[in-house]
Amino acid sequence: xxxxxxSAFVVFVVCLVLCSVQPGLSAVDKIIxxxxxxxxxxxxxxxxxxxxxxxxxxxxGKLTPLQKLQVELNTYDxxxxxxxxxxxxxxxxxxxxxxxLTSAQKQKIxxxxxxxxxxxxxxxxxxxxxxxxxVDNKAPTSIKPGSSRKKRDSGARVCPAVESYEALVLAIDxxxxxxxxxxxxxxxxxxxxxxxxxxxxxxPVTVATCANTDRLVNAYIIHLATGNMQxxxxxxxxxxxxx
Length: 243
What we know:
alpha+beta
């Protein structure tokens, strides 16, 4: 750990102590999971607090000072090169929150942007409705019961793809920066994104090369570098055909 990281950790601990022992402050417990450098947060709401030790957020659009320290501690050893970061994100084990939102932040997000989030059941139901509406214009699509993965018939597109809908936690934005996608799974409120992987290297229906690439989709995210929470574009996997 660098001197900067050590200093941040010291400030972090001091702030936790102050918030825990002084009456009327919001105490925020941080628990380091064994075998994992990520920090989990459990907030206990209370009133008041000095400006030098803010333990709760009054602005749903920004991280608290403690959460910014949490980001710094949990990202200092992550890959910095974009290629390495993209490869790191492919491992499902790394799809874990870097910063934990408080209960108040989650409630405000759901109140203000609730239409952005769906439960898994709602997501699967919306897919079925969409497919039923398009049945006359598209080739048949099969979805296994209880699964969010599906495979289109080769006649549906030039480059058929295996598709999955995933509740991404970490992603890369349009500026090649690591961001955290706001997810609230304990409240069945998640953002779902279509991920595609080409089934073939070349099209089975015409002369074309099939390739995996990225496309941009909108999401409610946390900009880890700035601490801002807002809508922005993130990269997801896509399959395209080139003639």
